[in-house]
Input
Amino acid sequence: MRPVLALSLLTLFGLFAEAAPVKFEVLNSEGEPLSNISIEASQNNEAYKLLGQTNSDGLFSADLAEGDWDFKASKNKSFQIVHSSAPGKVSFKTANFQVRIVNSFGKNQSDVEVFYNDEGEHFQSIGTTGQNGRVKTELFPGTYRFKAVKDHSNAVGTQTVSACANGGTLILQTAFYGIHVEKADGAGLSNVKVMAKMGPGKEVNLGNTDENGKFDIELFAGVYPFEVSVNGSSTKEVLALFGGGTSKSWVLKTEFDKQSGLEGFFGGFESNSFYGRGEAFKLGDEEIEQYSVDIMHFTAVQTAQGAYELQWISREEIGLDYYTLEVSEDGKIFVPLAERRSSGNSIRIQSYSANHFQIEPGPAYFRIKQTFKNGDIRYSKVIAINTDTDAPYLAYPNPTQGHLFIELPMVQDATVIVYDVNGAFVAEHKFSAIQHEMDLSSFAKGLYFIHINSKGKTEIHKITKY
Output
């Protein structure tokens, strides 16, 4: 009499051949058994069907029809595919993925929550870092994106791990932001509230200055508008950092108001009102002609589409007519790239941006020309970027059920050629972008070789389609 388990599985696949036993074993990177791991099977490129789950010993067995099979083990939406045959034994093993968070001084940071990108744009938590600054998880080998979140700031990194006991460590580093508030007499002012805008419509209270008037915080690098307030008065500043391990501090002084007997941000331009079309402002009872611009931040950031977004922030504009963003290939001869009208007379923070799409490999230089209404012209500092094309190409997720992303270090012409495991041509894609999505859902399950060709450089990636 045929065993009940074998009969049910053979019936599931519509097969009536003699039963062939297959034993499955799933272990973690340390060789320990993993329970409740789903085991699926596919034959002749049919859809995968669930066989069952491993027991407390990491084992599962089934009777299947003799022949070649594709078996898949899944854990937390990561999976591994093994091509084998029945009868036989199939072993799966997860890899150890580890993320370490360090502060700007290189010291470990605890209590930072870390996520991994399990599908689409969704991130699943894998826990928080311990005293050693680390958090780890067991996933089947592949390429994954990880995100760390601290005080509403975040950083994302990519890690590829093969089947091995120690899969390596992805290190993400925060940057140091410091604020020091001094009273009019130079002593530190305590209990000054520090706020920051950590996203659209997200004002976050970060804390208060200490007894020495200092407030320090480690955040993942970015641009954060800070607001410091005390006794009903406030002042604002944008602190921008674009790399872990960097630091920036903001030192500011309050004024003593004799009438109220309080320290605060009462004087300066914060109490003045501008009027007219920008040629004059009022300071007390005196009307003053002035033309000035204070550009506090100017940088280039690469977008997901591969363009470079030039961003600049001013905290004072008086008598300015318009900005002209200029670009140069050698840092000497500049040509106009984009023009932005001034926001008008202002002593508050104003933000501007413009995109540059046609950047060839090599250095590019940018500056901001400032044209005032009286005809005066001034220039900002020059910033440079280097569009290095030597960075590796990426192909993920791997394995994939159908959608595969090809990612290049910058916008450039590329050709992707797909070959099957026998070396036969399968498909060809051409694109000009920083990222390209391929649909492999119609491909047969199995191993493919992805040849990525761009600017004389070729990389080959092995991708499993399941």
Notes: Helices lie at 4-12. Confidence is low (pLDDT under 50) at residues 1-8, 268-289. The CA atoms of residues 93 and 415 lie 34 Å apart.
